[in-house]
C-alpha cells in the first residue's frame, strides 16, 4: 500500500472516576489517535503512551514528536508499505515502541480493511467473544474498595485485579477475598512498587489464592523476579518487563515469570504481540491481554488479540464505560461478562466524528 497522508490527533477523555495505581492517579486519558490514508482504505491506530513517563519512558508529547519527526516520514517516503514492513522500516529509530505500535496498528487496520478481513481473522482468533476482567485502583478506604468490587462483579466482570502498593496490599486483598469468597478470580498488580527486600512481605499474599502477582519489582529486575518466584507460591506475571518477544524469552528462560500480560502498545504492535503469544504458547506460559485505558480503537484490537488460543486468562479488556462516559467509537459493552470480538473488516470500529472532534485537542497532518 502507498501511504498518502498521516493525521495525528492528540485527544483527551475524562475518566468516569480517578484511577489510582502505585504510579499515581489519573483523572483523564491523554492519547494519540493515528489515521493513515491509503488509496484503498483509511486505517486507525492508537498510541497508549500516557501523559507522563511513569509507566514507561514514553509519554504522549514524546510519542507525537517522534512520530512526526522520525517515524511517519519514513513511511511516507516508502514506495509501498505493509503492516509487516512497518517494523523493519522503523527499525533505525531506537525504542519508542508505543509510538511505533500506533503506526503499525493503523497500517494493519488499513491493510485488513482493504482485504475485507477483520483483526480477529488477520491475527488468528479462535473465539467470537472474550471474558472481561477489570482493573480496580487503589482506594481511600477498604469499604470503598469493597463497594467498587461489588459493583464490578454485579456488572458481570469475570476477574478482579487489585492495584497494590506498600501500605495497601495485605489488608485490602484479604478484605476482598473474605467478602467475595474463594471462587472469585482475584489477582494483584504492583506496577513495580516493591523491591527484593519485600519477598517475605509479598509471600503473605500466598494466603489469598491469587491467580498471579503482576510486576511486583522493577521492570529491569528479571533476576529479582526469578528469586521472588522461588520464594512465593503465587505465580509471577510480568507486564512492564516484557517489551518484545526476545525479552519474553529471556524472562521465561530465567524463571522470572509463569504468566505474561501482553499489551500490543508496550511491545511495539499487534504483530509482536502475536509473536509473544506464540512463543509463550510453545513454552507453556499462559498469557492474557492487558489494558492501557484504550479508547474503542485499542479496545477493538485488544478484543481480537485476546481471542487467540493461548490467551487463557481473563484480560483487562473491559467495557468502555469502565473508564469513559462517552467513547470515541461505539462503546464496547459487557455481554454476560464477555466482550464480543468485532467481525467487520479491520478493527471493525471507526471513530464517531462528533465524539472524536469533541475529544481532539490538536491535529497534525503529514503528506507524501
Ligand atoms: C499505569 S495504569 C495503566 C497500566 C495498567 N493497566 C491496568 O491496570 C488496566 C487498565 C485498563 O483496564 O485498560 C497495568 O499496569 O496493567
Ligand atoms: Mg500491569
Name the descriptors:
single chain, 368 residues, alpha/beta, 7-stranded parallel sheet, 4-stranded antiparallel sheet, 13 helices, 21% strand, globular, binds N-succinyl methionine, binds magnesium ion
Give the structure's gist in a few sentences.
This protein has 13 helices and 13 strands. It has helices at 60-76, 83-90, 97-115, 119-123, 142-155, 170-180, 199-203, 222-231, 245-253, 264-267, 270-283, 296-305, 353-359, and strands at 5-21, 24-37, 42-47, 129-131, 133-136, 159-163, 186-189, 213-214, 236-238, 259-262, 287-289, 338-340, 360-367. α5 crosses α6 (170-180).
* Spatial ordering of strands, largest sheet: 5-6-7-8-9-10-11
**SSE pattern:** EEEHHHHEEHEHEHEHEHEHHEHEHE
Q: Tell me the overall shape.
A: globular
Which ligands accompany this protein? Answer: N-succinyl methionine, magnesium ion
What Rg, in angstroms, do the CA atoms define?
20 Å
Distance between the first and last residues' Cα: 13 Å
Helix content: 25-40%
* Nearest-integer average pLDDT: 98
Unreliable stretches covering 5 or more consecutive residues: none
Structural class: alpha/beta
Number of helices: 13
Beta strand count: 13
Q: Could you tell me the strand content as a percent range?
A: 15-25%
Largest sheet: 7 strands, parallel
Lay out the secondary structure.
Elements: E1 5-21, E2 24-37, E3 42-47, H1 60-76, H2 83-90, H3 97-115, H4 119-123, E4 129-131, E5 133-136, H5 142-155, E6 159-163, H6 170-180, E7 186-189, H7 199-203, E8 213-214, H8 222-231, E9 236-238, H9 245-253, E10 259-262, H10 264-267, H11 270-283, E11 287-289, H12 296-305, E12 338-340, H13 353-359, E13 360-367
Parallel strand pairs: 5-6, 6-7, 7-8, 8-9, 9-10, 10-11
Antiparallel strand pairs: 1-2, 1-13, 2-3, 4-12
Helix pairs in contact: 1-3, 2-3, 5-6, 9-11
The structure holds N-succinyl methionine and magnesium ion.
Amino acid at each position: 500500500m502507498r501511504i498518502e497522508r498521516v493525521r495525528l490527533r492528540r485527544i483527551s477523555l475524562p475518566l468516569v472516576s480517578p484511577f489510582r495505581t502505585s504510579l499515581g492517579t489519573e483523572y483523564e486519558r491523554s492519547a494519540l489517535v493515528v489515521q493513515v490514508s491509503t488509496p484503498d482504505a483509511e486505517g486507525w491506530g492508537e498510541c497508549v503512551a500516557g501523559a507522563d513517563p511513569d509507566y514507561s519512558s514514553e509519554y504522549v508529547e514524546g510519542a507525537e514528536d517522534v512520530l512526526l519527526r522520525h517515524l511517519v516520514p519514513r513511511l511516507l517516503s516508502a514506495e509501498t508499505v505493509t503492516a509487516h514492513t512497518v517494523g523493519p522500516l522503523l527499525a533505525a529509530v531506537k525504542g519508542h515502541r508505543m509510538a511505533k505500535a500506533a503506526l503499525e496498528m493503523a497500517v494493519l487496520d488499513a491493510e485488513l480493511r482493504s482485504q475485507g478481513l477483520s483483526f480477529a481473522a488477520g491475527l488468528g482468533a479462535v473465539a467470537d467473544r472474550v471474558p472481561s476482567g477489570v482493573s480496580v485502583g487503589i482506594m481511600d478506604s477498604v469499604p470503598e474498595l469493597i463497594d467498587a468490587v461489588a459493583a464490578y462483579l454485579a456488572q458481570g466482570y469475570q476477574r478482579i485485579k487489585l492495584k497494590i502498593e506498600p501500605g495497601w496490599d495485605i489488608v485490602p486483598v484479604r478484605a476482598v477475598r473474605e467478602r467475595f469468597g474463594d471462587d472469585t478470580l482475584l489477582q494483584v498488580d504492583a506496577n513495580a512498587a516493591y523491591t527484593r527486600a519485600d519477598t517475605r512481605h509479598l509471600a503473605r499474599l500466598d494466603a489469598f489464592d491469587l491467580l498471579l502477582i503482576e510486576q511486583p519489582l522493577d521492570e529491569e529486575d528479571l533476576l529479582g523476579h526469578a528469586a521472588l518466584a522461588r520464594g512465593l507460591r503465587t505465580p509471577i506475571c510480568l507486564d512492564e518487563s516484557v517489551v518484545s518477544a526476545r525479552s519474553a524469552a529471556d524472562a521465561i528462560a530465567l524463571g522470572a515469570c509463569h504468566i505474561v500480560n501482553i499489551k500490543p502498545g508496550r511491545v511495539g504492535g499487534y504483530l509482536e504481540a502475536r509473536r509473544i503469544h506464540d512463543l509463550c504458547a510453545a513454552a507453556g506460559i499462559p498469557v492474557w491481554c492487558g489494558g492501557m485505558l484504550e479508547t474503542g480503537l485499542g479496545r477493538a484490537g485488544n478484543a481480537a488479540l485476546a481471542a487467540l488460543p493461548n490467551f487463557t486468562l481473563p484480560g483487562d479488556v473491559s467495557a468502555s464505560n469502565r473508564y469513559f462516559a462517552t467513547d470515541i467509537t461505539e462503546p464496547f459493552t459487557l455481554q454476560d461478562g464477555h466482550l464480543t470480538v468485532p467481525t467487520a473488516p479491520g478493527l471493525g470500529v471507526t471513530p464517531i466524528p462528533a465524539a472524536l472532534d469533541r475529544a481532539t485537542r490538536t491535529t497534525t497532518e503529514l503528506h507524501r
